[in-house]
């Protein structure tokens, strides 16, 4: 179908208006300009939107088969800001604060989703998807939280990196993936791995080079 110039201009204006309305309603994606293809794939692969400064889609039930739309309140932002403010002294202190922020998210979601009953290293073999996350869920959820906090300006020493994967059947290493932070001063990549810990326990935080050798 061929558009006349007048119709074409009206169509473009309509698209711009719709995009503007969507941005005003939903908020711009957190770190939208910086999302790598690997981070974007976390969301596109399960047909959800990336997080925004206003909220995030929480995945649970294994490979995001169950979902919950978390809208951040002013109280949520204040709580996370207080947690991260305690980590301003050093990069190590900031990573410790990130651990507390992930625990905060776990506690925030647990009573709502029923994931306060979750166990460490859960997968389909436990037949309890409605109470648990698999490692894909925790990677998405943790990455989303990190992106939101980054957009809020709560990181001084780190930025959000691409998720990392490990798994080598030749040495009986099981498949697993995790969220990642990059230390700006050194370029060292640090995992923030929630899946290997039970409800409300601090996630594992260690260099990627160390994490990839574990099982």
Task: Note down, in words, how this protein is organized.
With 215 residues, the chain is an alpha+beta fold. The chain has one domain. The protein contains 6 helices and 7 strands, in the order H-H-E-E-H-H-H-E-E-E-E-E-H. It has helices at 5-26, 37-44, 74-85, 91-113, 135-151, 208-211, and strands spanning 55-60, 66-71, 158-160, 164-168, 173-183, 189-193, 204-207. Strands 3, 4, 5, 6 and 7 form a 5-stranded antiparallel β-sheet that branches. It has a two-stranded antiparallel sheet with strand order 1-2. The protein is globular and about 40 Å long. The N and C termini lie far apart (57 Å). Residues 1-26 have low confidence and may be disordered.
Put the structure in a nutshell:
Residues 1-32 form the signal peptide. The protein has 215 residues and is of the alpha+beta class. The chain has helices at residues 5-26, 37-44, 74-85, 91-113, 135-151, 208-211; strands spanning 55-60, 66-71, 158-160, 164-168, 173-183, 189-193, 204-207.
- Give the strand tally: 7
SSE order in H/E notation? HHEEHHHEEEEEH
Low-confidence stretches: 1-26
Count of distinct structural domains: 1
State the end-to-end distance. 57 Å
Keywords: Signal
Characteristic key phrases:
215 residues; two-stranded antiparallel sheet; alpha+beta; disordered N terminus; 5-stranded antiparallel beta sheet; 6 helices
